[in-house]
Amino acid sequence: MRIAGAFTYHASPDLVWSMLHDPRIIQKALPGCQAFDQISPSDFAATLHIQQGPLQGEYQGKIQLLDQQPNVWFSLSVNGTGFTGTISGKGRLQLAEKDGATVVEYAGNVDFLGPMSEHSHRILQTTANSLIRQFFEGIDREVQIQTGI
């Protein structure tokens, strides 16, 4: 399944970049995140308890930064396993300064395997988009704290 979208932050690319790479901030922003630990400079382990739609359940996963150009873009892979199945994906986030703000565009592919894959593509897409939106809104809350806006 293809996912794509954009989110605008009223902050510099430097600040947004640092928020998107800070394990403490990511743990706060990820919906249902119970743990987010850095294993190496490019590898992270996460435990999430998702409470939405067909993805409900607890997942153990790994996030890996594949390549990056600081303050401009980075690519990542995500793999998680839980009772309802396995989620895997690859994507890219692109940061661009526009009118004093930073626009983060994201695009990627997500695959669902196991019992959750029996749900309709539309329901899985809606749930995935909702979780992504919640994540970016969580980052925005942290940006607002940092900038005082």
Description:
- By secondary structure, this protein is α+β, with helices and mostly antiparallel strands.
- Helices cover 28% and strands 50% of the residues.
- It has helices spanning 13-20, 23-29, 121-147; strands spanning 2-9, 33-40, 43-50, 57-69, 73-82, 85-98, 101-113.
- The longest helix has 27 residues, at 121-147.
Task: Give short descriptive properties of this protein.
149 residues, alpha+beta, seven-stranded antiparallel sheet, 7 strands, globular
Structure described in brief:
The protein is α+β, with helices and mostly antiparallel strands. The chain is built from 3 helices and 7 strands. Strands 1-7-6-5-4-3-2 form a 7-stranded antiparallel sheet, with helices on one face.
The parts where pLDDT drops under 50 for at least 5 residues are none
Rounded to the nearest angstrom, the radius of gyration is 15 Å
| Terminal CA distance | 36 Å
* SSE order: EHHEEEEEEH
Record field, number of beta strands = 7
> What is the SS-derived class?
alpha+beta
Shape: globular
Percent of residues in helices comes to 25-40%
Please outline the major beta sheet.
Answer: 7 strands, antiparallel
Strand order of the largest sheet: 1-7-6-5-4-3-2
